[in-house]
Amino acid sequence: MLTRLQWRILVLLFISSLLNYVDRSTLSVGAIDIQRELNFSTVRLGILLSAFFWTYATFQLFMIAGWFVDRFDVRTVFAIGFFIWSSATAVTGLVNSFAVIYAMRLLLGMGESIAFPSYSRILATQYPEHRRGFANALVDAGTKTGPALGTLLGGLLMARFGWRAFFVALGLVSLLWLVPWFIWTPRVTKADHRERRADLVGIREILTKRSAWFSALALFCSNYFWYFLVTWLPAYLERERHFPKSKMAVFGSLSYLAIALSTIVCGWLSDRMIARGGSPTRVRKGFSGVGLTLSTVIILVAVVRDENIAMALLFTSCICYGLFAPNLFAMTQTMAGPRAAGKWTGFQNGFGNLAGVAAPWVTGWVVQESGNFFLAFVVAAGMALTAAGLYVFGVGSIKQADFRARAA
Q1: CB-hemisphere CA count at 13 Å for 320?
Q2: What is the pLDDT of residue 345?
Q3: What pLDDT score was predicted for residue 15?
Q4: Under 8 Å CB-to-CB from 256, ≥6 apart: which residues?
Q5: CB-based contacts of 29: which residues, under 8 Å, 6+ apart?
């Protein structure tokens, strides 16, 4: 059973990941309104949707975020990142030019780059192997519930109050999260901090591990599928399915919520299988390979004309993706261990989130050139299938990597 402190930490991490993804997904929800007001082309809108990922990926790929998380008190580092991204969201609602909105998206990415290295550092330190599937599932459920709430509330509230008011209110209300974070989370003593710094693993040593590279490449492919949904699903439902904004908000949010619920169930189930003697390698890879492979049913969404069948297929694809989601960072945290969790996760997540740059831009280009979303769905499904192969056959055994002896 989890302790009261572990539950408190998980609740706060869940809320933070939820707000994290509400903040990054609201631009997609308001994309049509913003494009109309500021007169963007579809290609330029794709560039704006991908802006966040340039700093988000760069700060993790070059292990800048991971270095801060591993070297300093993760409690304080995470709080600073949270403050930066929430403030950037609020300011976005006040500006009037493409250039300034683009700059705010870059700042949003910089602040949020701290999040996943912090999550992995905390979970690898505070939770044992047979609890990490569920712990990661709750964090990941926040990343899926966030777009669900952002799409639903954003769609409904933007339709009534406009996109600017929603951005400002969201950013300011999010800052309240910092109060319980500093009250509930324990401080790291100077002695503990010195102990951890003496035990760090270097960046070069992480990069010598095969699993670090394959997990990063696999995350890129699986993230392409996810960011295709986050950045372009609302626009697809409005443009090609001709859903009004309120209907788009409902079906878009239900799609993300389907992943969240599936993630929690599968995270708990994978932990139970490991606790009963199952191999972490077989369990984590099995869930990942099967889930990513079955999620390719999303191709049929773009083919089926019947609205109800198409939405049922979309929900099925999202549920299948949820099989994979909770095991992603559980694998990383086990292979990296507490000594390397921040940097390894930062590198992996940074490389993987280059898909956040690629997916919006490629999708925008494909849709503009072809005039529909079919090929965009095919590319997303192909990336998910590639990710399944990389996780199953590329990533090594799910056990802690052999690092150098602890530094004196």
Answers
A1: 22
A2: 84
A3: 94
A4: 144, 145, 146, 147, 148, 151, 229, 230, 318
A5: 150, 151, 154, 155, 158, 234, 249, 252
Please give the span between the terminal C-alpha atoms of the chain, in angstroms, as a whole number.
35
Q: Is 337 left (phi over 0), alpha (psi -120 to 50) or beta?
A: left
Task: Give the pLDDT confidence score for residue 197 in this predicted structure.
Answer: 53
- Which sign, positive or negative, has the C-alpha torsion 99, 100, 103, 109? negative
Calpha distance 408→406 (Å, rounded): 6
Interacting residues of 309 by C-beta distance below 8 A, sequence separation 6+: none
| Rounded Cα gap, residues 203 and 85, in angstroms | 26
Q: Look at residue 403 and tell me if it is in a domain.
A: no
Res 196: pLDDT: 53
Residue 278: C-alpha distances to residues 74, 255, 284, 290, 336 (Å)? 32, 31, 10, 17, 20
Give CA–CA dist 331/327, Å, rounded.
Answer: 6
Q: Which among 324, 315, 319, 314 has a CA at the least distance from the CA of 352?
A: 324
Is 407 within the bounds of a domain?
Answer: no
Domain boundaries, position 59: 9-183+190-394
Query: Domain count of the chain?
Result: 1
Are residues 298 and 337 in contact, defined by beta-carbon separation less than 8 angstroms? Answer: no
What is the token pair recorded at 355? 């898909």
- Find, among 18, 315, 12, the residue nearest to 140 by Cα: 18
Whole-angstrom distance, CA of residue 337 vs CA of residue 218 = 20
Task: Give the chain's residues under pLDDT 70.
Answer: 188-200, 404-408
Q: Is 3 exposed, middle or buried (0-12, 13-18, 19+ CB in 10 A)?
A: exposed
Neighbours of 380 (CB within 10 A): 26
- Summarize pLDDT for 203-217 with one digit per residue, the tens: 788 888 889 999 999
pLDDT of residue 191: 47
Count of CB atoms situated within 10 Å of the CB of 98 = 17
- DSSP 8-state code for residue 63: T
CA-based nearest residue to 303, from 239, 369, 372: 372
- Which amino acid, one-letter code, is at 354? L
Pairwise CA distance, residues 400 & 316, whole Å: 34
For residue 333, what is the domain's CATH number? 1.20.1250.20
Secondary structure element (H or E) that encloses residue 113, with its range:
none
